[in-house]
Design brief:
Number of domains: 1
Distance between the termini: 19 Å
Biased composition (Acidic residues): 36-58
Region (Disordered): 23-68
Biased composition (Basic and acidic residues): 59-68
Number of helices: 2
Length: 68
C-alpha cells in the first residue's frame, strides 16, 4: 500500500469517527429532536458517496504518477 493510499485511509477513518461522535452528541443534546432513520440513512449514503469520490481521486493520482 502506498503512502498516499494509507494517508487517505487514515483521513477517512478519522472523519468517520468524528461524524459518529457528532451524531452521538446531537442525539444526547437534542433527545427531543432525534433524527429519523431516513435522515440517518441519507447521511450515510452521502458519506459513502464522498468516500467513493475520494477513492476515485486517489486512483487517478496513482495513474498520473505511473504515466510520469
Amino acid at each position: 500500500m502506498s503512502n498516499t493510499t494509507r494517508q487517505v485511509n487514515i483521513v477517512f477513518a478519522r472523519r468517520k469517527k468524528e461524524k459518529k461522535q457528532k451524531r452521538i452528541l446531537y442525539v444526547n443534546n437534542n433527545s427531543s429532536n432525534e433524527r429519523t432513520e431516513e435522515e440517518e440513512e441519507e447521511e450515510e449514503l452521502e458519506e459513502e458517496e464522498e468516500e467513493e469520490e475520494e477513492e476515485v481521486k486517489v486512483e487517478e493520482e496513482k495513474e498520473e504518477k505511473k504515466e510520469k
